[in-house]
């Protein structure tokens, strides 16, 4: 049995794409288990530079199946575009599969999201329709990929929900849609995706029974979880490890490894509390100018990320709610230029040190407790053995391990697949 789950340990943008691409070399299947095309996983390998939004990062390994899982909301037009771009670089995409129970993200979901972000309730979404697709799932108004396999049934579903959709569009000042135009889209998608759609529970469980090595790939990070994150500044799904089993329909006891991916500092995109956030100029050493693939700009939006020092309370919280068996730390090389490196080791709230993650609105009031560690002022990007890292870089890594209680097994020292150290 070999089921591995990989998730973000912070606010997203931790470098998950790089680590999945690296680990996929040993996998038979890679599954995206939640989210949509509102965030991107950046992969740099022999095929080029890719920002994947819907396609699992295992697509580049020959004969590795990749699966868009039940917990996802998938914009079919975006998926077609992404597969076409990947295929144009000489990558075989014939091993792509889609859960019949995955939600279809419709054009009207994007319209509703865009209209909502114009109002006073904006939370800084990417306006990709993700929240509205998940909302329709919850109120049983969504179409699923299984509907594309029976177009007569699909038309009945559209006729059933179109009134509710148009009432909401009208209430928000949007343009109504007709059942005919929605159905025409579905017919085109059925022709494109029919051969990819599979019944997910059998598909996954039979692979587990065969002893296949499966990697479940999460999107975003723990602090964006709709239940456990900085609500309401969260995504609309659960990017925590347990949801891999919940959404795929296999026993959680089958999971053998849970890898958290963290960045060597902190970053966030969108609104919400961010206790260790720096002033904009202070973060320039991390950010870059946008010309490099690993500069601190959103893979989906291109927005400059908010930056901060490493926040250990966030990492400890992520470790507790996910149960990490190991951690991958990315972008250690971004700290090479610093004489001193600050690390938040705890929070004070109302003048008292706390040992829990407070509600999001109280995170605005916490006072980070910092320690200052010595930097190493040495290029780490060409190093491939842990004992060859500068002493202070090793002290930084071991300080994190001691404070989080989880081994840092993978150490990223650059954006490419090969830019990694495996710490035994």
Strand order, largest beta sheet: 9-7-5-2-10-1-11-15-19-20
* Estimated structural class: alpha/beta
Give Rg in angstroms: 22 Å
Low-pLDDT ranges: none
CATH topology of the largest domain: Adenylosuccinate Synthetase, Chain A, domain 3
pLDDT average, as an integer?
A: 92
> So what's the oligomer here?
single chain
CATH architecture of the largest domain: Alpha-Beta Complex
- State the major sheet: 10 strands, mixed
Q: Strand share of the residues? A: 15-25%
How many beta strands in the DSSP annotation? Answer: 20
Provide the domain count: 2
Intertermini distance: 22 Å
Key words describing this protein structure:
four-stranded mixed beta sheet; 424 residues; 2 domains; Adenylosuccinate Synthetase, Chain A, domain 3; alpha/beta; single chain; Adenylosuccinate Synthetase, subunit A, domain 2; ten-stranded mixed beta sheet; globular
């Amino acid at each position: 049995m070999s089921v591995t789950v990989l998730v973000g340990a912070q606010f997203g943008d931790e470098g998950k794409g790089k680590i999945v691409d690296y680990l996929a070399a040993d996998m038979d299947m890679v599954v995206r288990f939640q989210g949509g095309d509102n965030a991107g996983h950046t992969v740099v390998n022999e095929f080029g530079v890719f920002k994947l939004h819907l396609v699992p990062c295992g697509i580049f390994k020959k004969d590795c199946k990749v699966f868009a899982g039940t917990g996802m909301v998938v914009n079919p037009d975006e998926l077609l575009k992404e597969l076409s771009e990947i295929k144009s670089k000489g990558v075989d995409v014939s091993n792509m599969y889609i859960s019949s129970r995955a939600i279809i993200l419709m054009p009207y979901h994007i319209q509703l999201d865009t209209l909502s972000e114009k109002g006073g309730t904006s939370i800084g979404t990417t306006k990709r329709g993700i929240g509205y697709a998940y909302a329709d799932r919850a109120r049983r108004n969504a179409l699923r990929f299984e509907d594309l396999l029976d177009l007569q049934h699909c038309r009945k579903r559209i006729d059933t929900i179109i009134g509710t959709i148009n009432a909401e569009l009208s209430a928000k000042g949007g343009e109504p849609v007709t059942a005919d135009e929605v159905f025409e889209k579905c017919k085109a998608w059925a022709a494109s995706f029919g051969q990819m759609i599979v019944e997910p529970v059998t598909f996954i469980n039979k692979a587990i029974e065969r002893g296949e090595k499966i990697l479940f790939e999460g999107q975003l990070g723990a602090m964006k979880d709709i239940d456990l994150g900085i609500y309401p500044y969260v995504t609309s799904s659960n990017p925590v490890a347990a949801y891999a089993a919940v959404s795929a329909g296999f026993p959680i006891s089958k999971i053998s490894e849970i890898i958290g991916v963290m960045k060597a500092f902190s970053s966030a995109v969108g609104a919400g509390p961010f206790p260790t956030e720096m002033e904009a100029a202070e973060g320039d050493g991390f950010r870059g100018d946008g010309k490099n693939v690993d500069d601190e700009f959103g893979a989906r939006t291109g927005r400059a990320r908010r930056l901060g020092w490493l926040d250990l309370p966030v990492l400890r919280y992520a470790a507790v709610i996910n149960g990490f068996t190991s951690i991958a730390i990315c972008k250690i090389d971004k700290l090479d230029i610093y004489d001193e490196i600050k690390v938040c080791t705890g929070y004070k709230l109302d003048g008292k040190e706390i040992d829990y993650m407070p509600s999001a609105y109280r995170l605005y009031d916490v006072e980070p407790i910092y320690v200052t560690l010595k930097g190493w002022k040495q290029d780490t990007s060409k190093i491939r053995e842990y004992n060859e890292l500068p002493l202070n870089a090793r002290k930084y890594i071991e300080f994190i391990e001691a404070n989080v209680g989880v081994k840092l097994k993978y150490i990223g020292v650059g954006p490419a697949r090969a830019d990694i150290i495996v710490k035994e």
